[in-house]
Amino acid sequence: MLPLPSSTSRRNNRTYFPSLPPSHKLSSSQQLLQTLRSRTRLTNLAVFLLILCLSGSFLLNVNYLFLSTANFALSSSSFPASASASNAYGIQRNKGHGWDSEVTPHQLRSGIPLSIETTLERDSRYAELEHMVMVPGHAIWLGREEDVSRVNENDDWILEPMQRGGSVRTYVKHIRRGVEELQKDNKALLIFSGGATRLPPSPPLPEALSYHNLAHALGLLPSTPIPAEAGNAKAPLPLNLRAATEEFALDSYQNLLFSIARFKEVTGVYPKKITVVGYGMKERRFTNLHRQALAFPRSSFTYIGINDDVPDLSKHYSGELKFGFKPFLDSPTGCHKPLSLKKLLRNPYKKIHPYHISNPELIDLFEWCPPLTPHTPAVGVDDEEDDNLENYDGVQGRSFGGVLPWNPNGIKGSGDGQDEEITWDRERD
């Protein structure tokens, strides 16, 4: 006959309490302890506790995994100018964190860290500005005010070899024309754009700041105090207070994009109209590619082209097509080689722009990197050496498809440009 299971075999009360007399009746607590100490139940309890520990560990790991994924998604997505935008940077907007008694409701809603927002105070007239006039930089002027008489000479400029021989006169013309456009419109803000792009021993001086310094030296932006507001009548802001610098752009696409972000920093609003003053050979690049990439309305965009005063510009235009227009046609934001390599080489001082913080509405646009798409040769052109910019008059590059302050409904497309074709006027005809 097989023995009974240990859980059913009879046990004497003295099994686990040998010091007790045989006739002693166990208390309820002692009975419970004796039951738990039985071998079968003790094994079951150990297994139960082990399963409980493993389950707790599993739940903790799952919780950590989901929280990490959620935080990553939060930090990498686009945020409007609201409290949700500031949360992406771990900024606390809850009551009782100290800032609430020091800031305005607008500052709380801006999405900009309060340690930065509270250092900004804008005259109310800045919010009325709506026209951005942008002059992209091409070189760095190192002169002083007393040297301005020789501004058209190369001596006070940091230049590339190809820029010698008359280019500095064109840069001065760009600056002067930018100020002229500023004078025409009391609701305009002039922005000189360009970073510290030159390698040492060149100083870490941004192109934009050198242009601004030169404009002052030329007497184009005389220092004028801000006029007082007399009742309801508001005098327009003087020229020098409507001129700013954008000191981080490393290429022409960033000239336009970062200047829009800088306009927002200065005025608190985004421009409704844009005028760019630059080289005439770059008009198609800015109008058909950069403007299109940013989905800025064509009807609100103007380009003023001023070229070098030389008899033959054919090499300038062929160089623009090969090294400027076509690379940006293939890579609208310049995030692929060779354009990405150019940006890398143009940032020798490891500058980091602040626009993710000051323009949380544009985070997705800043990080937009559409796939590299080699361009289609122009119709009727068999040899690329025979190609020219005129063949690209009707070409429009790819556009960012997300929501933007100047394009609140977004444009048709997935946002990466893959389902958006580059079309040619000749083909449409």
UniProtKB/TrEMBL annotation:
Bias-annotated ranges (Polar residues): 1-16
Chain segments carrying region Disordered: 1-26, 406-429
Cellular component, GO annotation: cytoplasm
Lineage top rank: taxon: Eukaryota
Keyword entries, A-Z: Membrane, Transmembrane, Transmembrane helix
InterPro entries, alphabetized: C57A10.07/YOR238W
Transmembrane segments: 45-67
Record's keyword annotation contains Acetylation: no
Chain segments annotated as coiled-coil in the UniProt record: none
Protein name per UniProt: Cytoplasmic protein
Protein species of origin: Kwoniella dejecticola CBS 10117
